[in-house]
Amino acid sequence: MKQIKSAFLIISVSLILVFFSACKLTQKSVEKENASAYLFVYFTGNAKTDEAVRYALSKDGFNFYALNDNKAVINSDEISTTGGVRDPHILRGNDGAFYMTVTDLQTANGWENQAIVLLKSSDLVHWTSSKVDISKVFDGFKEVKRVWAPQTIYDAKAKKYMVYFSMLQPGGTDIVYYAYANKDFTALETAPQQLFYSPINRSCIDADIIEKDGKFHLFLKTEDEKDKGIKVAISEKLTSGYVLQDGYVDQTDESVEGSGVFKLNNSDTYILMYDMYRKGKYQFTSSTDLKHFKVIDENVSMNFHPRHGTVLPITADEAQRLITTYGWFPNGEISEAQSEAIKKNNVIVDLANKTMLLPVKNGTDLKNFDPEFKAKSGANVSPLGAQDFSQKAVQYDFDFGSLGKTTFEVKTVVRNNPSLTGYYADPEILYSNKDHRFHMYPTSDGFFEWSGDYFKSFSSTNLVDWTDDGVLLDFKKDVSWADAKAWAPAAIEKKIDGKYRYFFYYTGESKIGVAVSDNPQGPFTDIGKPLVANKPNGITRGQIIDPDVFTDPVSGKSYLYYGNGFMVGVELNDDMISVKENTLTVLKPDGTFREGTEVFYRKGKYYFLWSQDDTRSENYRVRYATSDSPLGNFTIPENNLVIAKDPSQGIYGTGHNSVIQIPGTDEWYIVYHRFTVPKGIEMGRAAGYNREVCIDRMFFDEAGNIIEVKPTLEGIQPLKT
């Protein structure tokens, strides 16, 4: 048995006194007298770091906010045999102590396991733990394949804590068993016995028992391939006699698991929640009779993505203890700072040190700045109004009413990266000789699995302050041959018959399209069909995406480049909306090429830049080669890295760039995207479609080699105009 020490365990004498008074409470007394908050105990996914116990708090049972910045509150390596734990269930015992059970399983090693973990606490912070390997303790279960989702309930008749869980024996199905824990909650003192088995359903897992009107309601997931969902079995006895009821209580056709039922404080309403694990979301439903349930997702919010957890009503003192120990900032109670000057996606909240960094836009007056924290009913923030942030941080007190209080040191700093407000990627930039402004054309990002279906344009005179010029091409309205996957545009200005024309090349449904306009900000008119719809002969891998367009200042000819997994270059006809097929060339950079070709010309050299790795990878980066021709052979410098991640600044996934030269100068800038800062590195696959556009200065050495660019949070200073 081990004593688990959570982070930040410096508890004051007053909190210790609170702890001794609180641990006398039973769940009924909490519900009747002093329940003012809810604790959600959960894990977050299948990665090793995800398989750990986490905490979140709520004032109403609907809106939950993660404690400890959604990080683990108990070290899985210390308590488990596998290094991972899942399916946490928490109970306030009849004796006032807290009991937790978890599945001892790290799925990186497969889905079979033999152990569960029993934990006990008197304050929700310090936990003792014991591993129980069913295969080693009980002779009849030496070959058990899996032991999943343990939960605990107090058996008033036996005056013991009953632990119940599903187990799979060789050649059998998942059956719900139960056993009694010993007095210290360190072991199971009785052999597992069958609690529930359904002859109708192939397997039954994730059992959850709640008592109502003298009857025990056992919620469970059925696993038959043709009959999946959450059902209820009811009995007048805790340990036997459960009768499976007809129909399902989950209110979705999606795959579900991990049902949990809890009663709202001082109410007749019960909440049934369950994990829609294939969708990565939770669904909440409500009922007063545990028979008929109604979806209430519109009332529910979370600033985290839980997997299979449980909710426990707690007191205000208990909530304050957890806040003091782990730290939090519930943006739903005290809204995030609302000032339009703040780059809200990039706010950094350090719960451990109780600091907050508010990055603001260029031109913000730091001597007289109001973050505009907004308080909901029952919550307060001080000070109010404008403060002087120019020399030091300002202390803010946040009072969440029944959820407790906390104080943060709030600092404000001007940061010009990201350049655009919101999620955008794959930026293209040009300078228009017609209106003497810079124009930016990015992929509209932040859409699940890169499903965006429109492009916007932005303009600036100084590369820092950007104006949103609106949608320039909308697939739903403007493009007949593509519905989604509006990616990676390129654009060029061309003077034709004395007039400036603008050509916008883009990816749609893994084909290359082109649209035309008389103005750089659009709107653009699509030509009505793909410009490129097929791969070159002999190319079987990759995708037709990521166009780039370049006009050779030497010959005046224009070229189109594209490809993922291969690089193609082809000359455009004078109309700029068709290609000279006989010039199509499969270009051959080195093995680092993935996508995102960018071509420019400087002092007699043609520079070819490309992105290496995958946009979902933190190691997404830019490399380059040079050539003496727009379609010629490549010379690859010994060090051809242009830009890469900088973990010291929390910058990752720097890639898919364009390059801009300030007219009439040898001043160059690289425009690229990165993972959103600071949360991108924690988002997994989703980091690849929650990206931000940045700009940094690019320099060359005397030989014309690109000097590796260091990505910055500060960005560039405005150009002098």
Mean pLDDT: 92
> How many H/I helical runs?
6
CATH homologous superfamily caption of the largest domain:
Glycosyl hydrolase domain, family 43
Strand order, largest beta sheet: 1-8-7-6-5
CATH topology of the largest domain: Tachylectin-2, Chain A
CATH class placement of the largest domain? Mainly Beta
- Unreliably modeled segments: 1-23
The structural domain count equals 3
Keywords: Carbohydrate metabolism, Glycosidase, Hydrolase, Polysaccharide degradation, Xylan degradation
Organism: Flavobacterium pokkalii
Protein name: Beta-xylosidase
Family: Belongs to the glycosyl hydrolase 43 family.
Structure description:
- With 721 residues, this protein is mostly beta strands.
- The chain folds into 3 domains: 2-326, 5 Propeller (Tachylectin-2, Chain A); 344-414, Immunoglobulin-like (Sandwich); 424-707, Glycosyl hydrolase domain, family 43 (Tachylectin-2, Chain A, 5 Propeller).
- Helix content is 6%, strand content 42%.
- It is built from 6 helices and 47 strands.
- A 5-stranded antiparallel beta sheet has the order 1-8-7-6-5. Strands 21-4-3-2-22 form a 5-stranded mixed beta sheet.
- A hairpin with a 5-residue loop joins strand 7 and strand 8.
- The protein is elongated, with a radius of gyration of 30 Å.
- Mean pLDDT is 92; it is low at 1-23.
- Keywords: Carbohydrate metabolism, Glycosidase, Hydrolase, Polysaccharide degradation, Xylan degradation.
- InterPro entries: Glyco_hydro_43, Glyco_hydro_beta-prop_sf, Glycosyl_Hydrlase_43_Enz.
- Belongs to the glycosyl hydrolase 43 family.
- This is Beta-xylosidase.
- Pfam families: Glyco_hydro_43.
